Amino acid sequence: MAEPYAPMPDDWQRALAVVAHPDDLEYGPALAVAAWTAAGKQVSYLMVSRGQAGIDALPPAEAGRLREAEQIEAAALVGVTDIRFLDYQDGVIEYGLPLRRDIAAAIREQRPDIVVTLNFHERWRGGDWNSPDHRNVGRALLDAAGDAGNRWIFPELAERGLEPWGGVRFAAVGGSPYAKHAVDVSSSFEKGVAALEAHRSYLPALPPDHPMADARGFLEQKVRRFGERFGGVPAIAFEVIGI
After folding, report:
1. Average pLDDT over residues 171-186
2. How far is CA 15 from CA 18, 41, 110, 146, 178, in A?
3. What pLDDT score was predicted for residue 213?
4. Residue 182: inside a domain, yes or no?
């Protein structure tokens, strides 16, 4: 039998969630975000792209505008009003110094206790291959969390008034096949469903048989499956990586 999940550490106050695309957080982690903000914690979002390549029937500029607006609405539904977008191109985000620098700048500005991201491993739990954007953003975030605390890495950030911040304690990785911790989302489930459903342009563009096309059904199945390893309560699982 699978080992039960441990409760995710709760002794922190500020989180910065960094993901590649609008909607990445809404497939699970946003339910935990809703629980955290309801408990008085502060959470900010940083989207590396605007999801420009996510809707085949729409030109990238139009898709990006729609998905940005929908992400702002989705974030507000789970208690997040501080949301920022970088201008990387969806689908071709590369790991490298520019991305590390931009994320380190956000960490220095926000000064979070923890960072949150989506699975950056090669595969998902079911074995499917993961997106290069997810892989590159997650790795860059982990590295940037260390960069943010070292004044001799990206010294130009200090020249912009962004002093080093070495206070990031750990990263919480949603969707990871190596998750060992979980968050009770029994009181925040409905907010999470509403947040996913806010992506009104993207979800209909998915194939009808895609599991995520049914927002409520997808999330119900997910929290029930994780809850089986977390005392039977609806839960979202995370991999916790020390920084």
Report:
1. 98
2. 10, 8, 8, 16, 21
3. 75
4. yes
Q: What is the pLDDT of residue 208?
A: 79
The phi and psi torsions of 144 (rounded to 5 degrees) equal: -65, -30
Domain ranges, residue 80 = 12-242
* pLDDT, mean over the chain: 96
**21 DSSP 8-state letter:** S
Please say if the pLDDT value at position 1 is more than 70.
no
Residue 66 lies in a domain: yes
Interval 73-87 mean pLDDT? 97
Cα 180 from Cα 74, distance rounded (Å): 27
Residue 7 lies in a domain: no
Question: Are the beta carbons of 90 and 51 closer than 8 angstroms?
Answer: yes
Report the alpha-carbon angle 23-9-228, nearest 5. 70
Q: What is the pLDDT of residue 205?
A: 84
Contacts of 85 (CB under 8 A, 6+ apart): 46, 47, 49, 50, 68
pLDDT in tens, 209-232: 777 778 999 999 999 999 999 999
Maximum Cα–Cα distance across the chain: 53
CATH number at residue 40: 3.40.50.10320
Say if 1 falls within a structural domain: no
* Number of domains composing the chain: 1
Structure tokens at 83: 């949301």
Sequence-ordered alpha helix ranges (H) in the chain: 29-38, 60-77, 97-110, 132-147, 155-159, 189-197, 215-227
- Using CA atoms, how far residue 136 sits from 17, 67, 142, 177, in Å, is 15, 21, 10, 17
